[in-house]
Amino acid sequence: MGRSPCCSKVGLRRGPWSTKEDTLLSNYIQQNGEGQWRSLPKNAGLLRCGKSCRLRWMNYLRPGIKRGNISQDEEDLIVRLHGLLGNRWSLIAGRLPGRTDNEIKNYWNTHLLKKLQSAGIQPKSHKDLPKPNKNNNNNKKKTATNIGPKKKKKLKKVAGRADKLDEARNDENENGEQSNNNERPPKTKVYLPKPIRVSSVFSRTNSYDSLVSRTSSSDGDAAEKVAEVVSYVPVAWPPLFEMEEGGYGGDEDDFLGVGCILPLLHHPLDSISGDVNMLDQVYDEYLQLL
DNA sequence: AATAGCGACAACCGCCGCTCG
DNA sequence: ACGAGCGGCGGTTGTCGCTAT
């Protein structure tokens, strides 16, 4: 059965937020706290969908949000985490204080993807890792349509760069089109680790850029180099406690310094410290959980 | 100067899992 | 057990601004 939309979209504003709307939203949340997103717009005097309010708050208005200027360290970490986790942006964002999943996702799509590809890296190196069911079901999601964004954009521009006025936006009618894809794979329960924010910055000596530069600097056996770079996919999990005690990051043989990104399994950690075989087991166990 | 091409990123959409009645 | 509501997530699209032609 189809679910009702999160809110009636009739008469609601869409598109970019004005400063006035931002102020209204910020003030309301500061006074009343987050949550109750569905009723928030009405209470705050906003003509916005609750989801839109939440997104705006989470990605831009929330205190502590860092905007732009993604550092080399952060970029490095994003690449590593993506190699581990795939497109689980919220998890990746959880390891980057002040960064939002949306920003990381955009940054990946616009910067890092090209960077990796230009370096001859197929960034899908994590494809062998088991993905959560949600991702495995991506087929049911609106996958790339026959007309890609660029083509659409081109078509749109060919048709003329019509200015999109707010009035037009307001007049927009949602047709409520929904794709009824009834052929869903059976659901399976999966373990989805929750992101854990940490404030410490990991030291990573084996930087992604150095890998890339190594790869692109010479014209030797390309496949070999790709394999070499792609090997940033981890092979073992380090004990979390090392990271949490601020001592993490010294070992170049850890899985490239990602460390601690995943919730720890309940293991007698003291006994596995330094034991690569045991770490492999931990990793295997984690993969099974996934 | 006008327009096409393109990049960047903000915002939207649809789906899912969790919670609660 | 079931269904609805809610929050959250990831993929995709829309919009804007800059550059090239």
TrEMBL record:
Region annotated Disordered, chain positions: 118-191
PROSITE patterns linked: HTH_MYB, MYB_LIKE
Cross-referenced Gene3D superfamilies: Homeodomain-like
InterPro entries: Homeodomain-like_sf, Myb_dom, Myb_TF_plants, SANT/Myb
Domain Myb-like: 9-61, 62-112
Pfam short name (any one): Myb_DNA-binding
Limits of the HTH myb-type domain: 9-61, 62-116
Ranges of Basic residues composition bias in the record: 139-159
Keywords of this entry: DNA-binding, Nucleus
Biased composition (Basic and acidic residues): 160-172
UniProt subcellular location: Nucleus
Protein known as: R2R3-MYB protein
Organism: Rehmannia glutinosa
